[in-house]
Amino acid sequence: MSSGIELTCESFQPPKKCHRGRTACQVTCVGAGLTRIPENMTSNLTSIVLTNNSLSTIGKNALVSYGRLTTLLMDDDEIAQIEPGAFENQKNLVWLTLLNNKLTELRRGHFTGLESLKMLLVEGNRIEYADLTDFENQTSVGWIGLNRNNICSSCLKLPYMPRLKELYLEMNRIDEISEDLLSGLPGLTGLSLKNNEIRTIRKNAFKNQQNLVELNLAYNAIITLSPHLFLPLEKLRKLILGFNPIENLSIDVLNPLQDLRSLDLQEIEIDNMDKNVFSMLPNLSFVYFKKFHYCTTYAPQVQVCLPRSDGVSSLSDLLGKPLLRAAVWGISCVTCLGNALVLWGRLTARDENRVLSIMIRNLAVSDMLMGFYLLTIAAKDLQYRDVYNVMANDWMSSWGCTIVGALAMISSEVSVLILSFMSVERFVLIASPLKINRPLTARNAYSSMIVIWVVGVIVALIPIIHWRSSTRFYGANGMCFPLHIDNPFLVGWEYSAFVFLGMNFFGLVVIFYVYTGMFASIWRTRHATPLAVGDSEFALRFFLIVLTDAACWVPIIVLKIVAMTKYPVPPDLHAWVVIFILPVNSAVNPLLYTFTTPKFRERLAEGWFGRIRNIVSRRQSDTQISRSSSNKNVILVLSTDHKESIGTQGIRYSTPFNDEGCKKKLDNHSF
Predict the structure, then answer these.
(1) By the number of CB atoms within 10 A of the CB, which of 81, 253, 257, 307 ranks highest?
(2) Which residues is 51 bridged to in the sheet?
(3) Angle 252-256-261 from CA coordinates, rounded to 5°
(4) Predicted model pTM
């Protein structure tokens, strides 16, 4: 009989712009411009594919001739209406898709007769009302997809369908899961309600879903979950709750899910849970959190936890990348060594401007604190290498992390305040020297530095005292510095914004303004004369001072503002900011304020470098003397030989070198 059917299918001619499919009893019409379903094809067809046509309506008798159909695909056909009884004789139909059409409702009678249907996909339409009671008590239907429609909770009728396995209702307007909505679907293994408007889930909403394996409730408006909501879901293995504004998520809600393998809690705050709380779910292998530190705090035993990094740390290391490790060691050593040399130079100098030395010594001390901070982070990275996921929470919640972060904060703020103070003091002296009767004294300089240090310490201690019940202001990540870029609204975000967008931005503006004013004032007084080399160097130093301040704080301020606007900031930027940008001033200040000054270069030339040059010069002179002596001896020998050869004429030749000339030359080249 089957061979007869095949022969019959081969005997008919498909409509214009249509063609046979993989077998003779399949017809495909893509973009054929059809306005109705062709009626003159063979009744033995098993598959009809009508795509990108203009059918508008599926009439009651449109498919009456094709009772052997098992597959009917009518996608992108502008279908707006299904007449009742349109599928009444399709008792063999297994697959029915009506994707991307213009249907607005599914009423009772639309699917009458589909006794063998296994899959129904009516996605991407405009359906506002869906009544599927035509499938009541039907045991064949296993998959229904109604994604991308406008179905609301009260407009969805789901009858008793004991064998329905998969139900997809994504991107609709469902705002509530009532106790009756899913009660007739005991066989469900997969349910997706992603991208709806769900605010309420009744406590017995899943009372008959004992076989549910996967549940997707992401991208809704769920705020609270009943403590016993998931109690019936003993077989659930995958739960997706991410991107909901859930408040105070309790582990008691998840505790019944002992077979859970994958859990998605992205963009959900769970800061109030206990440490290692997810160890109560013994089979949990995959978990997706909003923040990296949730992985290290709540689920260190989970095999795969995302995000894998906060841009700085990984699950195994405090500093997750070799480049970061090398940079921390390098920058910290340069910062400490450079500022130590500044302190040595300024403390041993006796002819320096005393007021300026006081300020620069204090600046060096504050910058050295940044070096100590980076050294501590580098040491902790070594200590926690390969075991950071176990130790991360202990480190971030420790007072050690808080103290280190406070040191970095003190260093940062004291440096900004000292640089601002130095800028203003120089501006007053240079821009308007005649208006100041008494320049700043050493005593006033000491007093000013004390005030600045007190302010810096207070700024760093306020969050420790105010949020004394939590170490999260400094311990938001393994670097212990409260920039709050990766998580802009963490505890104390207002204070962080005040410090970095208020104090530091104001300091940057002051520095930029006064150095611009100083440069303009000096330029006006010298514009009539040619620019000397010293003037060019002076202008370059002014430019570099402003540039390094801007390079340090402008990126931080911009990133802070961007993060607070909730624009996604790449996690890796946080590491670059803390390790490469924040210490810029601390590492470069010695170069700008000490090493490049003429007096320091003079002292350097007179000190170690001068001694080295003297030694080298002395050796060169000794070598020259020995060479001269050798030349003298050679000439004398030649002269003697010449005398002997020409007889006794008594001619004496003067030597080109003598002891007196050598002595003068050594004196002239001494340093």
Answers:
(1) 257
(2) 30, 75
(3) 110
(4) 0.74
Cα–Cα distance, 630 to 653 (Å, whole number)? 16
Domain identity same for 602 and 624: no
Query: The domain spanning residue 87 has which CATH number?
Result: 3.80.10.10
Do residues 367 and 469 share a domain? yes
- Name the token pair of 398: 């420790």
Same domain, 526 and 649: no
560: three-class secondary structure by DSSP: helix
Q: Which helix (H) or strand (E) holds 363?
A: helix 354-383
- The helix (run of H) or strand (run of E) holding residue 27 is strand 26-30
Mode of pairing for the β-strands spanning 71-75 and 190-192: unpaired
User: Is there a single domain that holds both residue 531 and residue 654?
Assistant: no
* Single-letter residue type at 546: V
Distance between CA atoms of residues 534 and 75, nearest Å: 79
The number of helix segments (H) and strand segments (E) in the chain equals 16, 21
Q: Is residue 602 part of a domain?
A: yes
Range of the domain at 562: 322-606
Angle at 508 between CA 506 and CA 510, to 5 degrees: 70
* Residue 453: CATH number of its domain: 1.20.1070.10
pLDDT category at 537 given cuts 50, 70, 90 is: low
Query: In the sheet where 156-157 sits, what is the strand order?
Result: 105-106, 129-131, 156-157
Total number of domains constituting the chain: 3
What radius of gyration, in Å, describes the C-alpha atoms of the chain?
42
Which of these, 58, 57, 67, 77, lies nearest to 25 by C-alpha position? 67
Q: Please say whether the beta carbons of 122 and 145 come within 8 A.
A: yes
**Number of Cβ within a 10 Å radius of residue 11:** 10
Q: pLDDT tens, 385-419? A: 988 988 888 898 889 999 999 999 999 999 999 98
Q: Which are the contacts of 3, defined by CB distance < 8 A and separation ≥ 6? A: none
| pLDDT tens figures, 357-366 | 888 899 999 9
- Of 156, 173, 190, the residue that ends a domain is 173
